Amino acid sequence: xxxxxxxxxxxxxxxxxxxxxxxxxxxxxxxxxxxxxxxxxxxxxxxxxxxxxxxxxxxxxxxxxxxxxxxxxxxxxxxxxxxxxxxxxxxxxxxxxxxxxxxxxxxxxxxxxxxxxxxxxxxxxxxxxxxxxxxxxxxxxxxxxxxxxxxxxxxxxxxxxxxxxxxxxxxxxxxxxxxxxxxxxxxxxxxxxxxxxxxxxxxxxxxxxxxxxxxxxxxxxxxxxxxxxxxxxxxxxxxxxxxxxxxxxxxxxxxxxxxxxxxxxxxxxxxxxxxxxxxxxxxxxxxxxxxxxxxxxxxxxxxxxxxxxxxxxxxxxxxxxxxxxxxxxxxxxxxxxxxxxxxxxxxxxxxxxxxxxxxxxxxxxxxxxxxxxxxxxxxxxxxxxxxxxxxxxxxxxxxxxxxxxxxxxxxxxxxxxxx
Length: 419
Hints:
Helix content is 31%, strand content 26%. By secondary structure, it is an alpha+beta fold. Strand 8 and strand 9 (157-159) form a beta hairpin.
């Protein structure tokens, strides 16, 4: 007796949808994948500045800790498909060599995100997944209390034994992330937590960052203050932009900034350019520096302390004449210089627009989704995976791992696996 294959429809061809399709197909399901674009993984192809930070090579506990937006919801998914499993999948199954860099961040050896997308497409084709491009979902179909398929914007219908919604959030809308999954979830009775930006660049009240646009600072510390109260801090790399600041540590701190801004808080940033030195050690360093360059003007004595493009701005902020001889700097002026190196202040104007955020916070309420299966608690045979869920983490590969893991579980369970 031949058993009819279970029909699974996956809506969304990003990382979560692709992994869901592969997981379901590997378990014998006949899988159809709808992608609204003409190609797969358009957002995936630009992640990590075009390099694709595939995952973070760490434990499940650390993955959860680095996903402050409902990370505990994913613990079961991480247990079924961990960062180690992701690495093995790409290296052993896809034949894509990987490397681990600072902060346990994992990238393809080629440093090409498109290589990740291409490897995944080859896997989908080998697994027999039916790829349907330029198919944008408009509505779900229901049979009683269960989902039975979906209709696209052209009126075409696909019936299915299970539907997986993996349409992403609302960031980078040019890649197709325009919130389609939220409308589908609402049709099934789900609550949508208001979408907002997560991992987003910050605009500043000050204009001088625009003068430094493109300048990257490494091994610096950035602190967020509400008045005199320290709210958060991060160490690493940041970047100046025409609107203010961005880069890894800014993006990480943006979650704190956005949460406080929603409460109407007026926040400031403090940039420590020399975090490895105490104030006393830095003062001693400055004394040696100004003795060494005693015959030079103040403006020409900072080359060993600061990037060249930052020096004119720093001098202006210090209030000290650039042509003042270094050997005439007073103790008070030297302390002012040291203070500015340890506390370069910026005022937060606000986050950049939602469309510029790397990740969407908000989405399908996780209380309405079964964490062990990613199945809807509102409708049977409806599953969710990836950024459409109200889950968001820090930069460093954590959000992509959430997509791989939730997609793997959704596909496995949609294919009919027992929990």
